[in-house]
């Protein structure tokens, strides 16, 4: 190895680790941003913690109630592909544009994958449901 080769290799490895940590942190989502998004969009149908304890649609699971399910984190991470969400929500660069065969809503909800991660991060902050 050339002089300074180990130093360059170590520096490159540290830089890679820093990028990996930054990507992991970004993927973890921003819980406060998730709370804002949930308040703006999800409260139309769901009870979302203390944001709207008497709101939502009766037949729609609450955010805290969803945590009873073993796969609740997967459901939050993939909610936009689970009915009825595809008719309401579009994820930038993931979901297809809305076509004319879908029901007309006042406003389509357009989110990014980072927004989805933030909603999941917010859901993780909610208390576990009572047994």
Automatic annotation (TrEMBL):
Family annotation (PROSITE patterns): CYTC
Q: Signal peptide position in this chain?
A: 1-28
Q: Which UniProt keywords apply?
A: Heme, Iron, Metal-binding, Signal
Native source species: uncultured bacterium MedeBAC46A06
Q: Which GO terms describe its molecular function?
A: electron transfer activity; heme binding; metal ion binding
Name the domain of life this protein comes from: Bacteria
Q: Does the keyword Transferase apply?
A: no
- Give the protein name, as stated in the record: Cytochrome c domain-containing protein
Query: Which residue ranges does the record assign to the Cytochrome c domain?
Result: 29-127
What lineage is on file?
A: Bacteria, environmental samples
SUPFAM superfamilies on file:
Cytochrome c (SSF46626)
